[in-house]
Specification:
By secondary structure, the chain is α/β, with parallel strands linked by helices. Helices cover 45% and strands 15% of the residues. Its EC number is 1.1.1.47.
Length: 255
């Protein structure tokens, strides 16, 4: 059983919120009473999710946003504050995967695209969230890294570079903002049963049996388990947790 949280009167922002871990986390924030701002590039999916939340009595808005574009991210945060007056929590989750590539053959445009979303997108999101939280003197941010931010794997140089970078951003910003009442942490998901992983399986970029075997718990993770970790890190229960890169990986990185 997951703990329950009371986030009434608080505002949560989630990027990459139209599917997978972002969608489930946004719903969890709403279920805990938060007003939720959902951001994604997929406008149609975003609209459907927001409609479902509001029809169930939750306070939620959707904002189409490409996190690789700083102007769009700045507008996203402004929209959140215009709608709800503040920003208390953020899950910077938007990210993409890249097909396995020999490091000597990796195209520069692929490297740039992966890092524009996975690393620059987290940097930009955190930057503009902090502008608002700095004014308030409070807030909690969770950045989405990956087990790929803690280890290396053949064929994944660009992706793992981006996820290692997220941890560096998190730790440095966490030290800077902890004295100002703002906690910043990262989570490092293992292989989670999301549409991204389903797509990788369909393309032959990942083998299900191997993915399961690599996680000592003996199964894929569920998006709800990621959401539970994010909400805990944003809650008073994690009030002394600052600058961590928390593996949520079924034991993968414990080997």
């Amino acid at each position: 059983m997951n703990p329950t949280y009371d986030f009434k009167g608080q505002v949560a922002l989630v990027t990459g919120a139209s599917s997978g871990m972002g969608l489930v986390t946004a719903k969890a924030f709403a279920a805990a009473g938060a007003s939720v701002v959902l951001a994604d590039v997929n406008t149609a999916a975003l609209t459907g999710t927001v409609d479902a939340l509001t029809s169930s009595g939750h306070a939620a808005i959707g904002v189409t946003c490409d996190v690789s574009d700083e102007e769009q991210v700045a507008a996203l945060v402004r929209r959140a504050v215009e709608a709800y007056g503040r920003l208390d929590m953020a899950f910077n989750n938007a990210g993409i995967q890249a097909p396995p590539t020999d490091a000597a053959d990796e195209p520069a445009d692929l490297f740039d695209r992966v890092n524009a979303i996975n690393l620059r997108g987290v940097w930009t999101s955190m930057k503009h969230e902090l502008k608002q939280m700095r004014q308030q003197g409070s807030g909690a941010i969770v950045n989405c890294s990956s087990l790929g931010g803690l280890v290396g794997l053949p064929g994944r140089a660009a992706y793992h570079a981006s996820k290692h970078g997220v941890i560096g951003l998190t730790r440095s910003a966490a030290l800077e903002y902890a004295p100002r009442g703002i906690r910043i942490n990262a989570i490092c998901p293992g292989t989670i049963a999301t549409p991204m992983v389903t797509d990788m399986l369909a393309k032959g970029e990942l083998e299900l049996s191997a993915a399961i075997a690599n996680q000592p718990i003996g199964r894929l993770g569920e998006p709800e388990e990621i959401a539970a970790s994010v909400l805990w890190l944003c809650s008073p229960g994690a009030s002394f947790i600052v600058g961590v890169a928390l593996p949520v990986d079924g034991g993968y990185t414990a080997r």
